[in-house]
Specification:
The complex is a heterodimer of chains A (about 280) and B (about 300). Chain A is about 80% helix and about 0% strand. Chain A has about 280 residues and is mostly helical. In chain B, α4 packs across α5 and α5 crosses α6. Classes of the chains: A mainly alpha (about 280), B alpha/beta (about 300).
């Protein structure tokens, strides 16, 4: 039997080579990707209900995602509080409002900076790591091995990571809030000599439990988004070191964009609810 | 030696059947109109050049991939028609030894071998301890290795742990993806012996994807050779040999003999033609000039 020429297909007109074809292909890929993430998310939720994860699987993942993130979130929170105090003090002092620093710093931290920064740190520290770990498992056929052994990879690999991010990010957010409040207070009252009583009085007047709840509420969505995006990138990692590296980078970048988008959307939604409940107020945004 | 015995042992009924199976990844077609039947008890070796779709075929058989066209049947049932539970039950009738063993990095050797038993709650922890010890012993690994992580093992040890993990769930069918790739000749022979031992003692049906002709002649009852689609004409069949291992050398198709003997043959002519088409003659002269310059600089 004669061997076919190496480039037998090269004589045929190449399909999809024009810019319009390529653009169409990219749009198609993007839509398919969104659909794939949605399907991945639904499967994750189904497996949470369908079969309970074993403690022996959950505990190490909760430890790696939650406990090991405490220090980085605490340090970030502290410095954000301190920086806010330094930056805001000059402006407020010029207007003779230095005693109001507490309200500005603390409301900023509990409503916005605490949740968003805790989520950003989690996306950077945990999201990339999850994508790289699962990407390596994909490339080395460990995910196929799980399926071959009759275990659903979403149940075994994604559900514990999703639960860890979902359940622990509120605690990390509270930790970040607390350290930010402390950091801001120490700099304001001990270094910038703002009156301590006035600082805390204004804080108490402006920050209430609903503000803290608003921040923690958002964090659940951030945690879920980080877990789903990072695990999805890992599951769809391409072969080789470059593929795994790319999955890790994409996990952080996409998570960060989605965190900011969710922050905006939830902020709008929360404000509408707040205005509906208390029409006289200025809303939460 | 295994050929006769295992062939005689085959009960003649079909266990795995690929019916007009085609597989395509985006723009790349890998398999086309594959017709293949594997009988219960026989060991089929799938050979062919890298990239011809051997591993893809293995993953289609166990349902890790879905064919773009055609059907894959196991024990008379179309895999695509199985629900989630049935698919799991079907997969538990298979053992899969992956090319790089695919051991779970985060687990110890013991936990890797015990994985399937624990996940599906086949038995209590005492029985699991016993089964894992037995499987490790069968593949010739000391029980002291059980506490180690996969990263601490050699290539041969990893393959043997992978085999022990696959055997722990008591499969009817063993799928081996290039079981001897990356191993030294002695360890390759050990793995071949373990495959034979598995056939004899567990009476498993086997599908062995390999490039290694020693493995083929030692373990296979039947050989199927695939040819890469990129080199085939539109109407040529992708399976270019299906028969006993002893018939490989005398096969009518010259491509079979070339592969078995490891002759580059046609490839060298194609490479020369490719170089010619790309105008490689001129760069070759330039490369030679560069090397001369480099030598002169070196002498200075």
């Amino acid at each position: 039997m004669a061997v076919a020429p190496l480039h037998a297909s090269a004589e045929r007109p190449e399909i999809g080579s024009s810019p319009v074809h390529r653009l169409g292909e990219q749009v198609f890929d993007a839509v398919a990707e969104v659909g794939d993430v949605a399907q991945f998310s639904v499967l994750t939720l189904v497996w949470i209900v369908r079969r309970r994860s074993r403690w022996s699987v959950l505990v190490p993942i909760f430890y790696a995602i939650g406990v090991k993130s405490v220090s980085v979130v605490a340090i970030t929170g502290t410095f954000i509080g301190m920086v806010l105090a330094v930056q805001a003090h000059h402006q407020f002092a010029m207007m003779g409002l230095a005693t109001r620093l507490g309200s500005v710093i603390n409301i900023s931290i509990v409503r916005e900076l605490g949740p968003v920064l805790a989520a950003t740190m989690l996306a950077g520290r945990v999201g990339s790591s999850m994508a790289a770990e699962l990407g390596t498992m994909r490339v080395t056929e460990q995910i196929d091995a799980l399926s071959a052994l009759g275990t659903n990879p979403i149940y075994y690999l994604v559900v514990p990571r999703f639960l860890a991010c979902l359940l622990l990010i509120p605690l990390l957010t509270l930790m970040g809030d607390f350290m930010g409040v402390i950091g801001g207070a120490v700099v304001s009252t001990q270094i910038l000599n703002v009156d301590s009583f006035a600082y805390w009085k204004h804080t108490r007047d402006f920050v209430d439990s609903l503000d803290i709840f608003a921040g923690v509420f958002k964090s659940y969505f951030f945690g879920a988004a980080i877990a789903l995006i990072s695990c999805h990138r890992g599951f769809n990692s391409r072969a080789g070191a470059e593929g795994v590296g790319r999955a890790a980078t994409e996990a952080f970048v996409f998570s960060f964009i989605v965190i900011l988008f969710l922050d905006f959307v939830i902020g709008l939604g929360w404000n509408s609810v707040y205005n509906a409940l208390w029409p006289q107020s200025q809303g939460l945004l | 030696m295994s050929q006769g015995s295992a062939r005689d042992g085959a009960r003649g009924d079909d266990l795995i059947a690929l019916r007009r199976v085609s597989m395509r990844f985006r723009h790349q077609a890998v398999l086309r109109d594959i017709e293949l039947t594997i009988r219960r008890g026989e060991t089929v070796s799938i050979i062919g050049e890298s990239g011809c779709g051997k591993t893809v075929m293995l993953k289609l058989i166990i349902g890790l991939l879905q064919p773009s066209q055609g059907t894959v049947q196991f024990d008379g049932r179309d895999i695509a028609g199985l629900n989630g539970k049935e698919l799991v039950q079907m997969r538990l009738r298979f053992g899969f030894l992956f090319q790089m063993a695919a051991l779970f990095d985060s687990l110890t050797v013991f936990d890797n071998v015990a994985f399937g038993l624990r996940e599906h709650r086949f038995c209590d922890e005492d029985a699991i301890q016993r089964i894992v010890a037995e499987r490790l012993q069968e593949v010739g690994l000391p029980t002291e290795l059980a506490a180690k992580k996969p990263a601490e093992l050699s290539g041969g040890q990893r393959k043997r742990v992978g085999l022990a993990r696959a055997l722990a769930i008591g499969p009817e069918v063993m799928l081996y993806d290039e079981p001897t790739t990356g191993l030294d000749p002695i360890m390759s022979d050990v793995i071949n012996e373990l495959i034979l031992q598995t056939q004899r003692t567990k009476k498993t049906t086997g599908v062995v994807v390999t490039h290694d002709m020693k493995t083929v002649t030692k373990v296979a009852d039947r050989v199927v050779m695939l040819y890469p689609l990129a080199r085939l004409g539109e109407h040529e069949a992708q399976i270019i040999y299906d028969g006993p291992p002893e018939g490989l050398e005398t096969a009518e198709d010259p491509r079979v003999g070339q592969f078995v003997r490891g002759e580059a043959g046609e490839r060298l002519r194609e490479m020369a033609q490719l170089r010619h088409n790309n105008g490689a003659a001129v760069p070759a002269v330039r490369a030679a000039q560069c090397l001369d310059q480099k030598r002169e600089i070196g002498h200075e």
